[in-house]
Amino acid sequence: MTEFPRSFDRDDLLKCARGELFGPGNAQLPEPPMLMMDRITDISGDGGAHGKGHVVAEFDITPDLWFFDCHFPGNPIMPGCLGLDGLWQLTGFNLGWRGWQGRGYALGVGEVKLTGMVRPDRKMLTYYVDFTKAIQTRRLTMGVADGRVEADGDVIYQVKDMKVALSES
Question: Which residues are catalytic?
Answer without folding.
Answer: 71
